[in-house]
Amino acid sequence: MKKSENCTGVSTVTLQRPPVNSLNLELLQEFTATLDELGKSKSCGMILTSASPTVFSAGLDILEMYRPKSDRIRLFWSKLQEMWLKLYGSAYPTVAAINGHSPAGGCLLALSCDYRVMVGPKYTIGLNETQLGIIAPRFQDTMLNTIPRRQAEFALTTGRMFSTEEALNVGLIDEVATDKADAITKAESFLNKFAKIPASARHQTKLQFRKEALDNLKNNIDSDLQIFVGFLETPRIQKSLELYLESLKKKI
Amino acid sequence: MKKSENCTGVSTVTLQRPPVNSLNLELLQEFTATLDELGKSKSCGMILTSASPTVFSAGLDILEMYRPKSDRIRLFWSKLQEMWLKLYGSAYPTVAAINGHSPAGGCLLALSCDYRVMVGPKYTIGLNETQLGIIAPRFQDTMLNTIPRRQAEFALTTGRMFSTEEALNVGLIDEVATDKADAITKAESFLNKFAKIPASARHQTKLQFRKEALDNLKNNIDSDLQIFVGFLETPRIQKSLELYLESLKKKI
Amino acid sequence: MKKSENCTGVSTVTLQRPPVNSLNLELLQEFTATLDELGKSKSCGMILTSASPTVFSAGLDILEMYRPKSDRIRLFWSKLQEMWLKLYGSAYPTVAAINGHSPAGGCLLALSCDYRVMVGPKYTIGLNETQLGIIAPRFQDTMLNTIPRRQAEFALTTGRMFSTEEALNVGLIDEVATDKADAITKAESFLNKFAKIPASARHQTKLQFRKEALDNLKNNIDSDLQIFVGFLETPRIQKSLELYLESLKKKI
Question: Which residues are paired to C115 by β-bridges?
């Protein structure tokens, strides 16, 4: 992950874990530390993008969840919870410059920012976890807070992946860009809207929309962890992950 | 009501109480028993449709509510509550193939399924109870969970009936069909989306969207019953139902 | 403020505090008294409009909030709370005939009615308080209950002002009118929808959509007052109001 600050104080954070920016424990730790730094440095805003030419993030690393070790899986899920609380409730504005496919946890990262610009037309985005039989407690709230409720129910029960155009029409993304540079430019343009707006009023207003979802996780952070770890231990889920990993190998 | 299962395990349930599938106690009992059967048989999904060529369901039978007998009206409303809890929270996916007009309780049946295909363009659908001065506690939540909040407030306060086209535009229905056969085909196509999705993840995800409305009824099931029965006993409501019944007779 | 009743029992209430209908304590007191009268007289409905040719209402009078006196600011905010509870929960239907610009508290008045007709295309409407660093507790709920949640978050964090066309597209207003007379005609047409609908069922249905926001204020009415008064006393906010007042003087 590399971080650069341009003259306007905007921080660009680039996910850089080849080949597809799968979120493992180490990447979550590094990203959470970066979010902390941005909070302390009173950043003007973060643009989150990817070093991969075709994938924003493939989501949670399946290898963390397949035959997990008890200590590490608990640490992994706790760090995911912590990262999400910091990203979704951040005091600085955030934009996802989505320059590639963005399934599952990749979509969660994008939905947890304040604004989404996506390179089109060929990439797809969505919370498709049900296709693997997985339900991530709480995190579905980000979809419900972004697109109409009926569309969210349909998308999440069917594990729908949206084309860029479909995502724009339903409000899952805010703008389409022609390439990564265009996405960054549009992201900066969004952040510039806040140039004259008092930061405290902006942040308090943002929290009025996100406080309920944030509190729901905070108030259930331990039980959510227990539930997810217990859920992963079921033979059915492990079999599902095994089949999925095998299907990935065949693609190579 | 007849039930058939095709080779894919999908169950088609056909409302068949001439002339307009008014929901009386017996029909609610029979339909609830069918829902129970489908739950036990682990159905791949239910398609709900009507044997009438012009009406999906005219809604609650006014004769159950006009000059009601104390025992029967309590049984009637309890059964409606039970039916709705089972339909709205069903473990198997459900589609309404709406092959005719669908006012009031007919619309409630459709809204309580997971997907709606409606034969167009000449039929109408809506929760128009306010026009009779009636408010059905809780059940309005199904409209709020389907179309945008502002549209739901407008529709429910004015007792709006939507044309098929209007219903599609606002998201009250998901697809328009040319006739009943086309509606069934499109319903099957929706159910096929779940062919490879683990049933448990699909159902848990559905409940994340519906649990609050379901719990609201469960936690108030007795008081809702008391309120509705007391409400029906007011002279004003009985007079309104009487005038409505007289207007129906004049149409014949 | 003048009030007239036409033959159908509809009351037209005209805001008339030159030059821009800023809401000061006296105007809020007079308007609240009018709302009480309408409630007692069982009005068929209220049309709220402005005597100004270019402004519906400029919102809260900044002079009430700049260097406020302790007694008066508390009275001012209490009256605003009382006015809003009466308007948003009114037993009679209400329409805003928005015949001019409608920022901040002017937009709040419009959002608290049941229906909005706006003269286009040159006027603008929005809750732009964050631009002054101000957050009005609770009242943002009216935006959230009117337009999609994602659009509301974007609009309120950026302090967005909508053109008439943008407001129509997002559902912030219901209809566009060519001039004030046309707006009044369209407002009457909306009120006529309720001619045959029992008033009690209409009002109870409206409250099902608004009860939560109303209760949130009722249950926090004193603490909200304390928070807002304390917030106004901070040097940062007073400085922001001072700069704003100076910028207004330069425009003259």
Answer: C95
CB contact under 8 A, C201 and B133: yes
What lies within 8 Å, CB to CB, of B178 at 6+ separation is B119, B120
Instruction: Compute φ and ψ for C198, nearest 5 degrees.
Output: -55, 130
Q: How far apart are CA A111 and CA C233, in angstroms?
A: 36
Residue B209 with chain A: CB contacts under 8 Å: 144, 149, 152-153, 156
Q: Which domains does chain C have, with CATH numbers?
A: 10-193 (3.90.226.10)
If we measure between CA atoms, which residue out of A242, A158, A232 comes closest to residue B196?
A158
SS3 state of residue B138 = coil
Burial class (CB in 10 A: 0-12, 13-18, 19+), A53: exposed
What's the rounded Cα separation, in Å, for the pair B22 and B11?
22
Give the distance, in angstroms, between the CA of residue B204 and the centroid of all CA atoms in the same chain.
Answer: 22
From the list C148, C171, C205, which residue is nearest B157 (CB)?
C205
10 Å Cβ neighbour count for C40? Answer: 8
Q: Are B225 and B130 in contact (CB under 8 A)?
A: no
Measured from the Cβ of residue B50, the count of other Cβ atoms closer than 10 Å reads 26
Mind listing the pLDDT tens digit for each residue in B5-31?
A: 443 589 999 999 999 999 999 999 999
For tokens 């609380």, name the residue.
A85
From the list B45, B100, B105, B126, the catalytic residue is: B105
CB distance B147 to B155 below 8 Å: yes
Displacement of CA A81 from its chain's centroid (Å) = 12
Cβ separation of C131 and A194 shorter than 8 Å? no
Chain segment C188-247, per-residue pLDDT in tens:
999 999 988 988 899 999 999 999 999 999 999 999 999 999 999 999 999 989 998 998
C140 interaction partners in chain A (CB closer than 8 Å): 205, 208
Can you give the length of chain B in residues?
252
Cα radius of gyration (chain A): 17
pLDDT in tens, chain A (252 residues): 444 444 358 999 999 999 999 999 999 999 999 999 998 887 899 999 999 999 999 999 999 999 999 999 999 999 999 999 999 999 999 999 999 999 999 999 999 999 999 999 999 999 999 998 888 778 899 999 999 999 999 999 999 999 999 999 999 999 999 999 999 999 999 999 998 898 989 999 999 999 999 999 999 999 999 999 999 999 999 998 999 899 888 765
What is the interface pTM, i.e. ipTM, of the complex? Answer: 0.93
Tell me the residue length of chain C.
Answer: 252
Are B101 and B123 contacting, i.e. CB atoms less than 8 angstroms apart? yes
> Does B241 participate in catalysis according to the annotation?
no
For the stretch B170-227, pLDDT in tens is: 999 999 999 999 999 999 999 999 988 988 899 999 999 999 999 999 999 999 999 9
Q: What is the pLDDT of residue A1?
A: 45
User: What is the Cα–Cα distance from C159 to C126, expressed in whole angstroms?
Assistant: 7
CB B107 within 8 A of CB B126: yes
Distance in angstroms (rounded) separating the CA atoms of residues B23 and A98 = 51
In sequence order, the β-bridge partners of residue B4 are B12
Helix extents (H) in A6-140 = 25-40, 62-65, 70-88, 104-111
Q: Three-state SS for A156?
A: helix
